[in-house]
Amino acid sequence: MKIKQLFTALIILFTLSNVYSQEKKFKIHTVAFYNMENLFDTINDPKTNDEEYTPSNGWTSKNYNKKLDNLARVLNEVGTGDNPINSPVVIGVCEVENRGVLEDLVKHPKLAARGYNIIHFDSPDKRGIDVGLLYQGKYFTPTSYTNVPLYIYKDDSKNGKKTKEDEENTDDKGSVDTKTKRIYTRDQLLVTGILDGEEISFIVNHWPSRSGGEKKSSPNREAAGRLNRKIIDSLYKINPNAKIITMGDLNDGPYNKSVKKELGAKASKDEVKQFGIYNPMEKMSEDGIGTLAYRDSWDLFDQMLLSEPFIRKDFSTWTFWKAGVYNKPFLINKEGPWKGYPLRNSNGVPGFSDHFPVYLYLAKEVK
User: Fold this and answer.
1) Helix 61-77 and helix 99-106: axis angle, to 10°?
2) Paired strand residues for 96
3) pLDDT tens sequence across 237-264
4) Element (H, E) at 227
């Protein structure tokens, strides 16, 4: 199918020539997700373990403002390759300390004109990092939103001799309640609203880390996958044609059990049945595309998945077009031992993030 893009001052239109040589015009919206890697303010919160990001430990107002400037640049530009008129209308985020840092971010000069609003809840994560949703109010109107807690518990009976895998590097180690053994992690954020006349639900995730090793910690992410599936099924029960985008840093790849079995995501559109979930990131992962690197190996933890109604071949409503990883050169470390990796915070110098953002396009025919 040949695609020819046409642009207006307000919306992007592209043309599709089908087998009958008929020309159609489409409107495009971008949806994105970004792990912002420790977006902390400079204030010591006695309720969280945020001491690393305080002036006494080198996290100054200058560094904080540089971090905001970096992130604002990314959010302003992500996904604008095929949609140059507008930044994402909806953005899921994670690793943000509180609502205040998001307010500072959306007021940044690079983003202020977009008119982003915020949905955020404080999660029980002991480091104080949360998920959130940013949205342009002129396009998306929330009708309901809630945070859905994930209850997981440490199983001391499985503790054994530590292996090399147990030493996997992560600054996201979570916290365990000494009495209840509950592992405190992030809630899953569910937001439903109207995107240019059509109801769409978004779920923003930051699943439990691989602290302790991938295999040993896998049950925690499998529990997160089951919770995510439960939320999706509840939306399908209300509306069998529910349009749902679940996105986030899953700390697992598209091929892991948490995503393939518990969430039930499929890599091929042809495999997705009614009430199913399509994962456009799995093919990217198979092609070697990643969003983060560890020990010189790339993985694709940051994913955006869609409910079955998004992949029907009817563009009269919002329909999935394509997805991508935003890995422009300015986001990549150009020197040193981490050359080629995402340009993260390093040696007290604010970077962008240790993850690349991801995005997808929704298209709708303009009559």
Assistant:
1) 60
2) 39, 130
3) 999 999 999 999 999 999 999 999 999 9
4) helix 214-238
